[in-house]
Design brief:
191 residues; two-stranded antiparallel ribbon; 2 strands
């Protein structure tokens, strides 16, 4: 059995690796505070006028001081960006699209996940704060759709390719899902 010496004490090699790879208590606490803040901000977006959400509201909802909130997020913009990444990650919204045939499947999967929280989906589309949250992920999603469409658009003139990509990208967005649900009177799960 291999072992290593740590502070003049012989310990098994597996234990030395575990100690080195383990995050500090302070880092774990900071991550816990960050997650609590992000979850509270999502609830705030979902439950009230998202554009009225302030840093003080989020701090209060998180159970921390405003000063602590600013230690983790320099401003509202950085908080909203982090909320977007956290939200889409926690919902498991797929961002990767392997090819043209997967665009519709990916959209339907994302819509199904967002339909579980329809008020939040609407806030992401209809409010300035929500659009800031969504923009964090939206750029990557647009790039994924564009890349997936390349096999179909490579032979087109550049303007037509951009137009076709823009239309398909828009149709496969949360904004379209919200509009379809609202205008068709379909329930959120069916829209």
């Amino acid at each position: 059995s291999s072992s290593s010496s740590l502070l003049d004490t012989t310990v098994p090699a597996w234990h030395a690796r575990a100690v080195v790879e383990q995050t500090s208590l302070r880092e774990r606490q900071a991550q816990q505070v960050r997650t609590t803040v992000l979850d509270a901000a999502i609830v705030e977006l979902e439950s009230k006028a998202a554009d009225d959400m302030s840093m003080a509201d989020v701090a209060h909802a998180s159970g921390i001081s405003l000063r602590t909130l600013y230690r983790h997020f320099a401003d509202r913009t950085s908080l909203l960006r982090a909320v977007g990444e956290h939200l889409y990650g926690s919902l498991g919204v797929p961002l990767e699209i392997s090819g043209p045939d997967d665009i519709a499947t990916s959209f339907l999967d994302a819509a199904a996940r967002l339909s579980k929280r329809p008020q939040l989906a609407r806030a992401l589309v209809e409010t300035t704060a929500g659009r800031a949250v969504r923009s964090t992920v939206r750029g990557g999603r647009v790039d994924a759709v564009q890349d997936a469409l390349k096999p179909l658009t490579d032979g087109l003139d550049p303007q037509t390719a951009r137009w076709a990509t823009a239309v398909i990208t828009h149709l496969c967005s949360a904004a379209s899902w919200v509009i379809i649900a609202g205008e068709s009177e379909l329930d959120d799960a069916r829209a």
